[in-house]
């Protein structure tokens, strides 16, 4: 027979597991799909997204795919403001701050945006 302390520990553990599953499901329910359009001359080999001014980048959202010029990629995020870190074919990385993924259903990368991003990131 389980002691009272073991029962309490098991019950508390089950509550924590149930709460984390519920929180994870709610976060996914709030996600929307945004299309990233590469209208630049540069291939994007990695793309990381984090809430604005947050220092953890997480996983590469492109995975093994490459966002070549004229290509599009779908990005599932909860609507909000984000920082986006892009890495090109040369391994050059830049961070675009405060990208608005709230209302528009797409975000377009241009040569001007990428060149400004790289300049501001390295200066």
List the helices and strands and how they pair.
Elements: H1 4-29, E1 32-38, E2 44-51, E3 72-77, E4 80-88, E5 93-101, E6 106-109, H2 111-122
Parallel strand pairs: 1-6
Antiparallel strand pairs: 1-3, 2-4, 4-5
SSE run: HEEEEEEH
Count of extended strands? 6
* End-to-end gap: 67 Å
CATH topology of the largest domain: Immunoglobulin-like
Largest sheet: 3 strands, mixed
Could you give a quick summary of the protein structure above?
Helix content is 31%, strand content 35%. It is built from two helices and six strands.
Question: How does this structure look, described?
Answer:
This protein is α+β, with helices and mostly antiparallel strands and 123 residues long. It folds into 2 domains: 30 residues; 92 residues, Carboxypeptidase-like, regulatory domain (Immunoglobulin-like). The chain is 31% helix and 35% strand. It is built from 2 helices and 6 strands; from the N terminus they run αββββββα. It has a 3-stranded mixed sheet. A 3-stranded antiparallel sheet has the order 2-4-5. β4 and β5 form a beta hairpin. The longest helix is centred in the first third of the chain and has 26 residues. The radius of gyration is 20 Å and the shape is globular. About 15% of the residues have low confidence.
């Amino acid at each position: 027979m389980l002691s009272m302390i073991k029962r309490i520990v098991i019950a508390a553990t089950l509550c924590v597991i149930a709460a984390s599953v519920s929180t994870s499901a709610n976060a996914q329910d709030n996600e929307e799909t945004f299309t990233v359009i590469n209208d630049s001359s540069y291939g994007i080999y990695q793309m990381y997204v984090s809430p604005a001014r947050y220092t953890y980048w997480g996983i590469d959202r492109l995975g093994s795919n490459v966002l070549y010029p004229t290509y599009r990629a779908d990005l599932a995020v909860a609507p909000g403001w984000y920082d986006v870190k892009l890495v090109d074919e040369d391994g050059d990385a830049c961070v675009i701050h405060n990208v608005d993924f709230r209302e528009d259903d797409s975000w377009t990368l241009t040569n001007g945006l990428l060149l400004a991003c790289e300049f501001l990131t390295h200066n």
